[in-house]
Amino acid sequence: MKKYLFLLMAIAVFAGCEKSPSSPKFGERKDIVLTKSQKEVFSNSNTFAFNLLKEIYPRDTQQEIFISPLSMSSALSMLSNGASGETFNEIAIALGYENSSVEDINSAYKAIIAGLREVDNSSVFAISNGLWLNSGIGFSVLPTFASALEDKYDAPAESMDFGLKETLDRINGWAAENTNQMIPKIFDRLDSDWAFILANALYFKGVWTEKFPKSGTKPMPFHSLGGKDVTKDFMRADLSCKLGYSTELTAQMCELPFGNKAFVFDILLPDENTDFDAFVAGLDAEKWNSAISGLSPREGLPVTVPKMDLDFTAEKDVLIPALNSLGIVSAFDEKSADFSSLSNVAVFIDNVIQKTKFRMDEDGAEAAAVTAIIGMVTSVGDYFIADRPFVYAIREISTNTILF
Description:
By secondary structure, the protein is of the alpha+beta class.
């Protein structure tokens, strides 16, 4: 059976759903206000989101894919403070920041971090950043890099020995604490050769503006790719929400609000018998925004969606090729990586990991993500490793005569 995306999940319309209970009262929405330069930074954020999805989707063999573009872009934005030259340009272009300075990027993230925490007092949004340096190999970063991450991303550097279990426990404990225990650990072990770990953690919990009645939840078949039906618990209610149809995507879109409607859950449902691989490949920010603009309010709309509880992990075998395809290449190359604004010691990126968790039920939804970027010190000078077939000879130097 082929994999399917649970984020782009099924919505069905049923007659006779129970009326949703009356909605609780929520506070006023506080829209996030950004300056012109800050808006420029985030103008292409959804472009990066869909580009990342389209690169991960065909590479991953898991059945349920759930990624956090914001967690990934936050981690890469922190890393960009240490990048220079072509390495910085590649990161900036991939994220859509090619017209922004690193100062603009930092200012925008500081504003968005503060704003997302305050837009809805009935929802919980938490974002945390961390930087750990391996004292076991004496690794340190430049003061300018350390101060930028602490001042703009609230990520003070911690120097710890990566060879000690207490360091592993500290970093995994940070992940658990900042995701409300949804992601209890990032690493099973730390490599004592790693130079640094830079990480972002996101946590969201929202209650539906109108909850689904638990009495309306019933088992139903979910029609997965490959023609196989999987039985899942589906929630049903008559809701005040938004609905639309995109002729460009040949898909329905439904918008279900949380709390005071600052946060919403968007569901994009392609027409039946759609080639889902081609559908995902055709997604982009422009089509997404067009679909959103075509939404219209509906009252008492019968909505049926599955309850969800999933974990997802993407590691270097998926993420590094995906980021390479988005143009971030030199950062992962030991010889061409330029992180001269990060440390006096030459480093490159050895690994990128993202772990996510998502739950959705009758009351609302809860989501968490941790993205970790691992750096290593480059080998000193050129190197030679004969780990593949080779030609060899015994030669006399003065005449260059080959003996064997």
